Amino acid sequence: MKEFIEKGQTALGIEFGSTRIKAVLIGPDYTPIASGAHDWENRLENGIWTYTLDDIWTGIRDAYAKLAADVQDKYGLKLKTVGAIGISGMMHGYLPFDANDNLLTSFRTWRNTITEQAAAKLTDVFKCNIPQRWSIAHLYQAILNKESHVKDIAFLTTLAGYVHWKLTGQKVLGIGEASGMFPIDSNTLNYNSRMMEQFKQLIAEYNFKWSLDSILPKVLTAGEEAGTLTAEGAKLLDPTGTLQPGIPMCPPEGDAGTGMTATNSVAVRTGNVSAGTSVFAMVVLDKELSKVYTELDMVTTPTGKPVAMVHCNNCTGDLDAWIKLFNEVLVEFGVNVPKYKLYDQLYFKALEADTDAGGLVHYNYFSGEPITELSEGRPLFARLPDAKFNLKNFMRSLVYSTMATLKIGMDILTEKEGVKVEKLLGHGGLFKAKGVAQKFLSAALNVPVAVMETAGEGGPWGMALLAAYMKQKGENETLEDFLANKVFASAKYDIVSPEPDDKKGFSTYLNRYIGGLAAERAAVEHIVR
């Protein structure tokens, strides 16, 4: 492996997740050979979920430094170059810059639910669902709010697009990431021209000097070159000066696109579930939906194929908070349990529980949840007076809560639109405890759920694969063929099918969950900051 590293026969993927920035280096066989990570948290400032630019650069440098240290420890080498680099991150959000490259307002992340007016108007005008977290919704809401910075916008991008721009000088996006800024036409592999014109007419009265097509990043598809790491970019990533410039970089992608790649779910009629701080299911469609649903987002694969996306803002945040609390209790008694062991022990405890969680219900809403029409969140726990209140039921209720809202959205796709899903591939932190969330999700969605050995690697590994595809693809080799024939040809899957008792139990839980949403709405209204 040392020879491959020295010759740059590797690929590096770096992904900005909600709570962790992770870098993964893969070798010629596409398996991870080194990694590094940096934990970070968004902050709520003046009612806006955000990260600072300093947070971004401190985080990526730390993650890269730890990856380089991992290479040094394992192989005795300083990491001077790699074959290709890809940057990915949380999709959507709002990062507007002026002509002097100054950020005009704080970074507004996907987590914000502050664009309801704009999203509703754009959905009506475009006849296409525009979720609140999309960049175009944030832009139009800022216009409606008469925010003074809007007139000065010269460039609007996402987190992944911003980092890629600073590393390469290129204002571009992968098409999957771009589809979360503005609707994409899968026939032209570009922003939808009809909707572009409609937006132009919608804002004509404001007489801005810019036009939308002039401030959005250029759209690229998987396999295209997206610039090279500049000398300035290399210093931003590795201030020690060890990493050399000139490394080719692939189009920056969103966490949805990297999730599809990491689960080999980019072909028609394939699907995956990515579960971490947020949770979303992606199904690659073979035909258009019959109507517009505000619960379903239309995005694309990294090659531009249409995808129906069920996105939920909340997944593991509340579960993580409870496990941290349990750890505090242990520490108070002088007991130190490794983080992974505590998670595994508590997750596996859920397998022993009553299938309906014994009358316990959790609402994991740290932030607003459009699918259930909540503008804000209040994590909430409730139980029936005669509930079987014990640890195993408590944990099952917590895990169930991570997928309850996803189930509500997926029912629209499968029941109202008749979309057939033969199986879903699961990846992300929720699936690390083998067989727990996978078993429950299969029962919840009534579909087999497969998890690969690489499930915990998730997005950054998927981004590294996209970088490798750009560098190594054969003539006319599609991403689908590259993944199926080279990356996943011998992949090992663990597939779980829905069990009748679990299906019945989750259904009972979900009925309680839906019925209690009125209490969650009341909590949002009456428990004020």
From TrEMBL:
Chain ranges of the Carbohydrate kinase FGGY C-terminal domain: 272-469
Family: Belongs to the FGGY kinase family.
Taxonomic lineage: Bacteria, Bacillati, Bacillota, Clostridia, Eubacteriales
GO molecular function, one term: kinase activity
InterPro entries documented for this protein: ATPase_NBD, FGGY_C, FGGY_Carb_Kinase, FGGY_N
Classification via PANTHER family: SUGAR KINASE (PTHR43095), XYLULOSE KINASE (PTHR43095:SF5)
Keywords per UniProt: Kinase, Transferase
Domain Carbohydrate kinase FGGY N-terminal stretches: 11-237
The protein, known as: Carbohydrate kinase
Native source organism of the sequence: [Clostridium] cellulosi
Single GO biological process annotation from the record: carbohydrate metabolic process
